[in-house]
Structure formats: C-alpha cells, structure tokens
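User: Could you check the structure of this?
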Amino acid sequence: MLRKDLKTGFAPSVDPDEIARFEALAEDWWNPDGRMKLVHSFNAARVAHLRNRLPALMVRDARLERPLDGLTLLDVGCGAGLVTEPMARLGALALGIDAAERNVRVATVHADQAGLPVSYRQAVPEELVAEQRQLAPAPAPSTSCYAMRRGLRRNRYCGAFLARPSP
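Assistant: Sure, the predicted structure tokens are below.
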C-alpha cells in the first residue's frame, strides 16, 4: 500500500491521472487481443532484448536456458507483470512494483496461476528508499545494470530494471 505519510525528499514519481488510467486497464493487461494489444505486439521483442542484454552486461551466457539465474530484478511500473514474469521464467528473482493497486492484484493472481515465484507490491521507488528496502546498496558498476523500459516523459520517474547478483 502506498504510504502517503512517508517523507522522502524526492519529487513524486507518479501522476494520479496516470495511475487511474492504467488501473482502468488492469483486467485487460493479459488479453493479447484487448486494449493492451499493442504492448503485447512488441513485448516479445522487448523481452528478447532484455534476455540478451542483461546477461551480457552481467558477464553471463545469454544462450543458457535460464540466463538470469542468481540475479534479482526490480521492475518499476510493472503494470500487470508483462515483463516481470518472463524475467522470472529466465531465472531472475523478480520484484515488480506499481503505484496502481489493481494492477498489482492482477499481476499477483496471474503469476500465482502460472506458478511463478514473482513478488509484486503496490509501491513507488521513493517508498523503497524511504523504507530502506533497496535491492542492494549502491552496487558497483561491474555488478549492476540498468535497462530502461520506457523513455522519460515529462520529468516523471522512468520504468527501470536494477539487476544484481542475489545474496
């Protein structure tokens, strides 16, 4: 749940109108012929790119069946988990966070039905910092990578992955 009482010192990364817009899509996220059809059409390419780039950046063999084994990934703005779930299938310990509560519920149910060990929670990046629940304390560049999922828009926080070796 979003903790509005936490003071983080960061500018808010979410727009209530944007949250409402994406929450309205929650039940349709996983329908490849629904309102998220366009996202589904490029998701395979997006996942393939991450499958190849993340292991390469982490000095791993992308040809392995599970090239992300031993990595922890944070998917910020995960929606219903269209990228988070494939990353878990590739071996990552995945945590998806989203500001929209309905999206998190849909993502959790979908991952449970698929038997995937994915964790989701309603949160924004500032909360993780405020709670001191970052996935890792400032990892060295050689052990971390950022793969941006979408471009910066109107100075809002950009969806990103943080990958690091799991403890």
